[in-house]
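user: Kindly work through both lines:
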Amino acid sequence: MNPAEIERLLSRPLTHAERQKVDWMNGWEKDTQTVVMGMLQAVYEAGEKKGAPAVAPDLLEKYKERMVNELDYHGFVREESYTIMAHAIMSTDLPDNQKFEYVQVLDDVYTDLQDKEGKL
């Protein structure tokens, strides 16, 4: 799986955690990698067709700040809180590409907090 191609599809650089996962997935069988890349390409093309605008960077930054506070506060039940928040995002009527942006911020915050505590 080509990280540069994935970054092109995402229209942004991979996070550290994402890059680690892509490196890990590069050890998978080639046919599995092909299926995953095909799904990423399909998601990209679907988003292009919908034409939904991206979430404004300042809104994502405010959301990130709230999630840092929420997940840091819920440290001992962080995984459960993360799951509930991700489900809430996916249950909205936002366009799929915007849902993905919010879930990505949530995932980055969760990963960063877990990594700081040595849980990754």
User: Anything to note?
Assistant: The chain has a mean pLDDT of 86. The CA atoms of residues 47 and 97 lie 6 Å apart.
